[in-house]
Amino acid sequence: xxxxxxxxxxxxxxxxxLTQDADEGLGHIxxxxxxxxxxxxxxxxxxxxxxxxxxxxxxxxxxxxxxxASVKAYLVATTFMHLKFEKPLIIAYAIYPLVLLxxxxxxxxxxxxxxxETIPERFKVESVRHDLLPGAEHGTTQGTEEKVVH
Length: 150
Fold this sequence. Notes:
Blueprint: H1 32-53, H2 61-79, H3 88-114, E1 125-129, E2 144-148
Antiparallel strand pairs: 1-2
């Protein structure tokens, strides 16, 4: 018995438990080397993430970060959650929330990338000279302070 991906099945149960498939038992065995390769790939992608955070991609900073994170999530889901061994219906159940997430992120990403200012004008902080404030003639204020403009 094998899987569509060529990984041999090893019967781990007799199919009597609800968590076991009567024909296939508890599941499959994944080689340690596969897990080690995924670990190395995730470590390399983490280094790529840190390196990418230090490079200015302009309006595409968030898109690059989401792309790298998506590749890492794919590796984790297919390997550690064993989605690459599942039937298409289970994969569809896993993909559906990702499609909704992509729609939500895509709906707000355009606005985020188009935004010219990160702080609205009404909340900007400006420097105020104390010598121009009331009471300055009495020496009660000195230097400058920051004030929120309303």
